[in-house]
Amino acid sequence: MHTKCFIAAVLKNTCQNHRIGITVSKKVGNAVKRNQVKRIIREYIRHRKGRITESGNTISYDINIIAKKETSHLTNVQIVDALDTLFTKLLSSLSDDRLQKLES
Fold first, then answer.
1. What SS3 state is found at 48?
2. CB–CB of 37/28 below 8 Å?
3. SS3 of 61, please?
4. H-helix or E-strand containing 82?
5. 71 Cβ partners below 8 Å, 6+ apart?
6. What are the domain boundaries of the chain?
7. I want to staple 71 with a disulfide (CB 3.0 to 4.6 A). Which of 50, 65, 67, 90 is the partner?
């Protein structure tokens, strides 16, 4: 899955819970900017944990959120909006059989 500012790499896992990783490379900016983006993503996930975990699946996934270079120019609100778009796409595809068929 991808949007203008983020990529979500998704794989099935053998755990009972979804696991989420965050990757922000040096392309996004200096250490201060990268840490700011990571904090915003962590806070977004913390506040929407129920929405992510209750996607209607019995299968658990490893989800890695990768910030693209375009993220460096966004405000906090714009980053949250971009994450909303990404997770809406992601959760709809997880509830569909599209992703499950691709991984089978």
1. coil
2. yes
3. strand
4. helix 76-95
5. 5, 6, 24, 28, 37, 79, 82
6. 6-103
7. 67
Is pTM beyond 0.85? Reply is no
Residue 86 or 52, more confident = 86
Residue from 51, 21, 23 nearest 37 by CA: 23
pLDDT digits (tens, 9 = 90+) for 10-25: 998 888 888 899 999 9
- For 6-103, CATH gives 3.30.230.10
* Residue 85 burial (CB count, 10 A): 14
Report which secondary-structure segment, H or E, holds 90.
Answer: helix 76-95
Q: Which helix (H) or strand (E) holds 22?
A: strand 19-24
